[in-house]
Amino acid sequence: QEVASEESEEERNGVNLMEFSDEILLHILSYVPCTDLVLNVRRTCRKLATLCLDKSLTHTVLLQKDYKVDKDKVKQLMRDIGKEIYQLNMAGCYWLPSSTIDHVTRCKNLVKLNLSGCHVTSLRLSKMLSTLQHLRSLAIDVNPGFDASQLSSECKATLSRVSELKQTLYTPSYGVVPCCTSLEKLLLYFEILDRSREGFMLSGQLMVGESNVPHYQNLRIFYARLAPGYVNQEVVRLYLAVLSDRTPENLHAFLISAPGSFAETGATKNLLDSMARNVRLDALQLPKAWINGSGLLQHLKFNNPFYFSFSRCTLSGGHLIQRVINGGKDLKSLTSLNLSGCVHCLAPESLFRKAEDDIDSSILESLVVSCCNLRHLNLSAAHHHSSESIGNHLCQLLSRLKHLLSLALPVCSITDVAANVEKPPTTPNLVPQTFGRKVRIGIQTYPKNLGDQANQKIESSVFWALMGSLRFLETLEIIGSSFSSAMPRNEPAIRNSLPPCVRAQSVGDSEVAAISQLTYLQSLTLAQLPNILTGSGLVSIGLQCQHLRTLSLANLGMMGKVVYMSALMDMLKHCKCLRDLRLEQPYFCAGAQFFQALSHCSSLQRLCIVSRSGTLQSDAVMSFMASCLEVIMCHMFMGESLTVCKNLQQSIVRSFQAERPALNVVIFPLLHEDLTEVIRDVPMRHLDEITLFKSRVAEEPPNLWW
């Protein structure tokens, strides 16, 4: 009786979730995946049955990272609420069979549809689009075998009304572009390989019957991103040929992201000249060869620009200020700026200047003052060395940008000049940065007591102050200016790495600890920090940055030994929200202790380890996969034999594929000659977001696609 009395009292005094207002409940339910709402939650009671079908929850359905969804759930979802869905995002659902797409035909009122990364044939696409008469935005992949002649007249009628198209090309083709006569936004991703699986060289010529001309007269946004390879360059020139004949009057964003050398031709020069005469741009990105040595920027006109990318260009700071920022005039509209690899962008002139020379702080100050509303800034892949002038350090000037949400910096730019000059070299700097014979040195254990650790930090450093001023920063990348990943895109693994910049030699544990001030940090990348002794700063980040979801660490400390392993394992025990982890470090030992610590990351979904001469314990990997139920991607490129790798990969797939439909496992020797063939089968979502190392800050304009 006493127990019953206590329970009834708790019921009277407690809060019943169903007593909340509908508005509050709808807000809570908005955080629940739509598949759970419709297939599970709405079956619990009458009130939730009604709320779960509210238009605010069914209007937009996002399945792009719902790794637990399978074909049966999609079928049931479309059957229950198909007519209520106006926006459907299935991007990257590579594990769903192509027959799943047939159920999209139930969504008669669809306005926006994203099928990037899904298996869709020409016939299936035709059947589906024939029923979607209200569609205005579409994203698809164009794979080998795509045949535009199989598209029905009803399908082409739907495409003629589409105003936004995102198309990822895996084969030379126009895709559905010629059918989209009302295009206002066109996004093209070129992922065509130069060689077939059989080793034959591919041609950039379009297939027979694909000579139809794209319609660009209403185009406002043109974006093209090219993967490495000459075929991609050949095909994009065919898309640009029409633009060179007649530039759309309403064009306000023109962006081409091309790695390596992409030479300018007569047609592209005519296009740029026409743009200079006829349009005013709000966003611009061009291949470096189109800008270097030309007076193009002097003639282009800008309206209210929100995005600029001059990645890898030889643009000098003088030209940047005079031609882009109009001599330091107000440019408050600019929210995203990518100067990655732009080695002279903070110097008055590039002529006779060495890349390692000090920057001109007045140029950076003009940039900061003019572009005071910047939210995304990328200064990586360059040597930005500050002078000894008081108050003019790069970190001090950047601290004025209070709206920054993402920032990428080279390691050598965050060091204190005075400390670099006065402090004698520490022991790790005397150790050669090579893969040769290991050198034994005394390494102190990191302090367990954070109070003691704080006494060791230089809290008056310029980088510490910068981190303290950017309290709302969500993404931070600190990357060595000479760092290159061991896993390039379409080439064999790199066997030797360049030594770090001399100015970067003093950057280590105290600088990493300074990052722990970023309470709202969600994504962190640290690469080529040579003075990491114990990794103690990582523990501080694990404790303080509780929103951290993505962590990428590469080549920290000595190259011959993973000196931060103990600290990393302690850090991982606190990362409850971590979803993506990428580690790239020679001689990394993925053993039982590491995976036991990693098992504390209960939200982890994707793991990638890249390690030359690295080792792994198969039993530890299997135990980890069994305990971390959310993991759907496991990529390991180590120093183990091909037999060990294949056996482990097969064991993981055999044990967990049935329960995890999206499971993608690649375990392969890093230096094996067939690595590139293995990489080409990795789903683009994983390859682009985690497996391949790259700087992602300001990589694209914000909100380029939904």
From TrEMBL:
One GO location term (cellular component): SCF ubiquitin ligase complex
Pfam family, one: LRR_FBXL18
Domain of life: Eukaryota
Residues covered by the F-box domain: 14-61
Entries under PROSITE patterns matching the protein: FBOX (PS50181)
Lineage of origin: Eukaryota, Metazoa, Chordata, Craniata, Vertebrata
Gene Ontology biological-process entries: SCF-dependent proteasomal ubiquitin-dependent protein catabolic process
Matching InterPro entries: F-box-like_dom_sf, F-box_dom, FBXL18_F-box, FBXL18_LRR, LRR_dom_sf
Protein name, as recorded: FXL18 protein
